[in-house]
Amino acid sequence: MKMSARRVLRYTGLALSAACALGLTGCVKNGGGSGGSGSTGGSGGSGTTPADYIYLSHNWSLTATPTKGGSTTPYTVSGVIDEQPGSNASHYVTSVLQIGSPCYDGANIVPADGSVNGARIQTSSFDVAGQVMSLDAQKDSTATHLTGVYTISGGCANGEAGTISGQAYAALSGTYVGSVAGQPGETITLNVNQELLGTGVGTFVVSGTARFSGISCFTQGTLGVTNAYVRGGAVVLQFATNEPQGSQVSLNGTIDAAAKTFNVTSGAVTGGACAASLGNIALTKQ
Known about the structure:
Layout: H1 14-21, E1 58-68, E2 75-83, E3 90-99, E4 110-117, E5 120-125, E6 132-139, E7 145-153, E8 161-169, E9 174-179, E10 187-194, E11 204-213, E12 220-231, E13 234-241, E14 248-255, E15 261-270, E16 276-277, E17 281-285
Antiparallel strand pairs: 1-2, 1-8, 2-3, 3-4, 4-5, 5-6, 6-7, 7-8, 9-10, 9-17, 10-11, 11-12, 12-13, 13-14, 14-15, 15-16, 15-17
Protein name: Lipoprotein
Signal peptide: 1-21
Keywords: Signal
């Protein structure tokens, strides 16, 4: 069963909700509990949370580099990591990630949970395709970078271990303007807003509108209820235009970590009288 990418979940336990909905093992757990294949819960711990504490709740893109196991090819691990607020020094953390390893092909999501103690984050995933990924990393003082190690036990990647590092991405929100490469006079202005909360499939929903200048068939577009999201640095946006024939504009590409630029590497108009590839578009936040 695949969960809707539009369903925004605020939890205790976004990853747990996703896991239960998918029928994965470990669903009996809750914040601070135990059981299943996930790691430690997050309640307990001595001390209190400082008033200026920065929580590890963001859209993340990490790179896993195997140093042990069958492959040495790095791959991307991206999606939602959410540290739960708490008054104790140890906090419960959940994640819903998509893993770029061939051993996870066909796995829509990989939920995990664990704890954050000071700068240290430890998580263990639920059993997906017979595999459990465990992460042990340190966050920086801004809670926007992670560096550590990981292991995988069971299944196709059994025995794999290596390093993992990466960073959080700012929200794709605001006004972005750019010109279509090779098409003088064709410009696109986006007014978009990325949800602060992640979905049960490890994405962040984006809503908003677009204005198109220099394109004869349509002048406006609106993001629909599907195919409008960010995961890590990857962006997928599909606009329904105001052309009577019902055309669609797809803008797929990447953002930088600060979300100051949106580079469209695959743009296209489908349907209607102006169907064509749009080529590359560099959109800059205003």
